[in-house]
Design brief:
TIM Barrel, globular, 10% strand, alpha/beta
């Protein structure tokens, strides 16, 4: 399988809800290359987002291809079928070459106990490792084996249609209630190896809250210890179970986790490890910032989006309940927002924890409010075109200065 594609050491999940910001996202990767750091862009958009907006994965591919051609990018890039399952994978088969297989819903599903015993017999090395005695391994197997089997089933379905080595496989278990321990991660990777799934990135759920569009909430030291130990588990799995040598962690809801970036960078350097960081959601908010800064017409449009989002907040927030934490009492009433000047709106929305007017609840609400903009149709898209210069600057600066530099470059 000499022609099998292999994801580079550093990669970043980019993209945006409306498929308009591919060029400034790629420009951020080009700028990183000028610092001597190669980062592979991976454009991702989930089936849920496509459904809400009425878009198609083929459009995501077209936007990425156009940006690459326009800017003369001659390095690898990919399009991710983000958080797919067996019901949603088909529409992504043709345009995508990166598949994030989401099996979180299968965690804890019933599995034949004899299969777990068979796994334990095949992996006697796991018993006793890191205090993981037989009972612990059996418990982990009962919890995760059904999810691994489902991941393998989806992987083989894709392989039959794309061909072996023609796409990158990520397995995601992050959208669940409980974080995976490093020991659980090792058992999961051993199981994936048994199922012959050539996973190149693995997305566990980490300790703490990874809410959409705002900073990490949790114990920083505990996260750092967990992140470091997970990297060590990956190294063991690669050596002992024959998984791809470039296997690395994938951090979902990774945008705006500013407090994590410095420790992540240090740990990655210490272990000489790679990472895949997903940041796509933050770019939609940069569109709103760019519109507000561009002039009165754009400002009135984003105020209208906020008014509708405030009115429909329960419906909009429902699908994202596990990854947002909005204090309704902190949401300003739309009549008040209508009186704001552009700088006040932008300062409330922009993620600057040091700003006295930054409003994390407003930011999270607008993060999930792209459905409102989607209903505007061409009116919203035409506004993006009119404010393209402002928005592009905002998107590129945010992605490079606030995400790429602290994680991958260390400045």
């Amino acid at each position: 399988m000499g022609d099998a594609i292999s994801l580079a050491k550093y990669s970043i999940g980019v993209g945006d809800r409306f498929g308009r910001q591919a060029k400034p996202q790629l420009e951020a990767c080009i700028k990183a290359a000028n610092y001597g750091v190669d980062i592979t862009p991976v454009w991702n958009k989930s089936n849920r987002e496509h459904t809400i907006i009425g878009s198609n994965p083929i459009e995501t591919r077209a936007a990425a291809d156009e940006a690459v051609a326009s800017l003369g990018w001659n390095k690898p890039y990919y399009v991710d079928a983000d958080h797919i399952n067996f019901k949603t994978v088909d529409r992504f088969i043709e345009p995508c070459d990166f598949f994030t297989i989401d099996v979180a819903d299968w965690i804890g599903q019933p599995v034949d106990p004899t299969e777990v015993q068979n796994f334990l017999q095949q992996h006697t090395e796991l018993a006793g490792r890191f205090r993981a005695d037989c009972d612990v391994v059996v418990h982990i197997g009962l919890k995760y084996l059904a999810a691994i089997q489902e991941a393998a089933r989806i992987y083989r379905y894709i392989e039959e249609r794309k061909g072996a080595g023609k796409f990158i496989t990520e397995v995601s278990m992050d959208e669940t209630d409980s974080p995976q321990t490093p020991t659980e991660l090792l058992v999961i990777l051993a199981s994936l190896a048994d199922e012959r799934v050539p996973v190149q990135t693995i997305a566990p759920k980490f300790t703490g809250r990874f809410n959409k569009g705002i900073d990490y909430e949790g114990d920083l030291e505990k996260f750092a210890d967990e992140f470091s130990t997970d990297i060590e588990m990956i190294a063991i799995a690669v050596e002992e179970y024959g998984l791809p040598g470039n296997l690395k962690l994938s951090v979902h809801s990774g945008s705006d986790k500013f407090s994590l970036y410095e420790p992540m960078h240090g740990i990655l350097k210490k272990h000489d490890a790679g990472v895949h960081l997903k940041t796509a959601g933050t770019n939609w908010l940069e569109e709103l910032i760019g519109l507000a800064e561009d002039g009165e017409k754009g400002l009135q449009l984003v105020k209208e989006i906020y008014r509708e989002a405030y009115r429909e907040r329960e419906e909009l927030c429902g699908p994202y309940a596990a990854v947002i934490d909005i204090d309704a009492a902190q949401l300003p009433r739309p009549d008040l927002v209508d009186s704001w000047a552009a700088d006040q709106f932008v300062s409330s929305l922009r993620h600057d924890p040091g700003s006295p007017v930054y409003n994390r609840s407003l930011r999270q609400l607008l993060h999930v409010a792209f459905k409102v903009a989607a209903r505007m149709g061409t009116r919203y898209l035409d506004a993006l075109s009119a404010a393209e210069d402002w928005i592009a600057k905002s998107v590129m600066k945010n992605l490079f200065e606030r995400h790429i530099k602290p994680v991958f470059i260390g400045e």
